[in-house]
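1st attempt posting a full record on here, be nice pls
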Amino acid sequence: MSRVGKAPIKLPSGVTLEQTSQGLEVKGPRGTMKMPLSDRVELKVADGAVEIIPKDKTKHSLRMWGTTRNNLANLVKGTHQGFQVELEIQGVGYRAAIQGTDLVLSLGFSHEVRIPTPPGIKITSDKPTTIVIEGNDRQRVGQIAANIRDYRPPEPYKGKGIRYKGETVLRKEGKKK
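the predicted structure (as C-alpha cells):
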C-alpha cells in the first residue's frame, strides 16, 4: 500500500479541479495547468479534498497511485503559490546579471554564458551572486536550475561554482608537500 497515495490533497480557496476527457485541469490564481490521468486510478473529490484510489491491486496500478497523487499535488501547489529555486554563485569573478530577458553568467570561461528565459519562468538576480528561478511547473523550474548549475558545478577543492542555496559541498584536502 502506498503511504503517499493514501494522503488526500486539500484544495486551497481559489483553486478548482476539473476532470476532462484528456485528463485533469487545475485552475488557480497563478494560471491553469493540465495533466493526463492514468486509467489505473480514479479520483474522488469531497469536502474540498481530492483522493486518488487505485482501480485494482496490480503492480502498475499501485505504482501509478502515488505518482499520480504527487503530480496532482504539484499542480495544485503550482497554480496556488508556485515554486522557487535559489542558486548561489561562489568564486572570484563569477557573477550573474539579467540583460533584457536573458540571464548572463560570467563563470571564468573565455566568453559569457547567455541563457534565454523560457516562457512561464521568471529568472531574477538581485545580487551578482544569487539567481532566483520561479514558475508554476515544479519539473521545469528544477530542470532549468539544474541546467544553470551544470555550467559550473561546485568543485571540491576551493568550493567555487554554482550551488543550490543551502547545499553543502564536501571539501577535499589539497596536495601536501
